[in-house]
Design a protein that fits this description.
heterodimer, A: alpha/beta, Rossmann fold, 6-stranded mixed β-sheet, 4-stranded antiparallel β-sheet, globular, B: alpha+beta, 10-stranded mixed β-sheet, 12 helices, binds adenosine-5'-triphosphate, binds magnesium ion
Amino acid sequence: MLEIKNVSKTYGQGTAKVVALSNVSFRVDEGDFIAIMGPSGSGKSTLLNVIGGLDYLSSGEVVLDGKRIDNLDENDFVDIRRNKIAYVFQQYHLLPSLTALENVMLPLTFCGLGKGEEKGLEILKGVGLGGRTEHKPSQLSGGEQQRVAIARALVNSPSLILADEPTGNMDQETGKEILGLFQQLNVDGRSIIMVTHDPDIAQHAKEIIVLQDGQIIDRINQKGGKQ
Amino acid sequence: MKLYQIVLKDITRRKKRMLYASLGVVIGVATIIAVLTIALAGETDIYGQLEKYGANLVVMPAISDIDVGLGGLSLGTLAVGENYISENELPQIRQIADGMIREALNIEDEGDIATIAPRLYMNTEIKGTSVIIVGVDPQQEWQLKTWWRIRDGEYLERADQALVGAMAADLLELNVGDKIALNGREVTITGILEETGSNEDYQVFLHIKTVQEAFDKEGLVSSIDVRALCSACPTSDIAGSINGNIPGVRAVAVKQIAETEMGMMEKVSKFLLALAGITLAVGCFGVVNTMLTSVHERIRDIGIMRAVGASRNQIIRIFLYEAIIIGVVGGLLGYVVGTLLAYIVGPLIFGGVAVTYVPQYFLPALALATFIAVIATVYPAFRASKIKIADSFRSL
Ligand SMILES: Nc1ncnc2c1ncn2[C@@H]1O[C@H](COP(=O)(O)OP(=O)(O)OP(=O)(O)O)[C@@H](O)[C@H]1O
Ligand SMILES: [Mg+2]
């Protein structure tokens, strides 16, 4: 469903030039669960941003469902964010003035779907937060906030979820619970690309891609391995 | 959940910033509302005077020195003890006035039409205090001063009676029945007027014959008030005709004075409005500034919204909704503050004019404030929509 072809990304120019990604290629098939690992500054976040259109690439192609998306203009990319790709961030990135439920309903609002409370409630229940729907982010723990963020990512039923260190801010235990949620989503048929520093988390993915200095230096196929 | 609901929920979290943003609008709108409200009060006042005195014209000696006024309108000046009009001119003035009114209104009637009230002003001392005494033709004066009401006693009729203005009576402690000495004569106070709010309150009215005899001014008057039958009567033409036919006098129609005052006021309020407009423009920059700060503070939120599906237009709309709220709040406050300002400043400008709030200004004030806030937000909103999502997360 998703093909990354020879993607490179450089920031800045001249002496300030930074090569964040260089010639990265891989495929993501339906139902894949890919973990991206690598040292800090190796280009993991950049890779996710480029895939999801949060940032432009310098060269190469990103093809989603047979269509190039790397050269789309802003407005066309809005449709992709609304329908096909969703994000989960390390810092949760919830809106502080909205309740958990409202945060989950936010993508529906932008799609022009005024209602969606039932759907939002159902999804919140699905991530184990049925009893916390009216709380503001500041009243929730990190793990709970991340569940809200995951629920928000799910509300539009995307086929691909990009997660940048979703467990980076929590203890082992909570991280495992969040990982469990992602695994459940994967079983339900969604493809997942997850950046993580934690080998314990990564080993549950179907494939691990290791980046260093913007290049793929290793790929570990774990299909049929630990689940 | 709708887009505007997101804005409302977010704004309640940032009330202070919103109030601050609306401050510029408040000041601008308040100034405009204050100017307009005061100008309207002044205009209403002048129209009120016109209604009261619109049919009047005043005949004075051609050279004059002390202030003569009708209500709040200054009618020029008049010299006491130096320049007088002869009583002999009265019939001719009546002839001119009645003749022109007859002609204008097609009246056949032979009797008197205009009210013609001669006056003789004198300065004298009563109980050691300097007072202006006014000799009047009691009957004509009563017809002219339709707003006069007697507080105590009765109206002036005979030569040995006096009618006292309300303030003069209070200050000099004069009562009905008291006697006043006037150059060796004695008159009895027959009545005291209710307060009228004009300089009449400080004057003492006597029969004109009494004043003429007491001060050796037989056959002389200081000024003559002429009241035509109606406001629509050609008072300006009558004044012109009097000026043309009777030497040594100057006749002015109140209408002309009111028109001049109105013209002055329009000029002044236009100037003030221009100043208020500048204030509003400056306020507009204030809004631009606060909005840009607001965009900067919310880069992360904007990035989040974009990442979960907000289009550029939706981001712009969010900021425009905020602008509308700022505008409505600013317009509301501006209207209230401006009206209060008018209540405070109005009477200082137009000595004692009654300022009233003008409900018709409310919606235009809201509309103007909203318009300004929206205009001021276009650029900041555009900036917000151009924020790169990846950058927005990195900035914090
Ligand atoms: N906007 C930018 N301008 C300049 N350089 C950038 C920018 N964003 C990222 N970089 C650089 O690109 C490289 C890759 O950054 P990236 O954020 O993708 O690393 P990462 O693997 O996600 O690191 P971490 O594990 O610390 O999150 C780094 O050297 C970083 O300094
Ligand atoms: Mg990163």
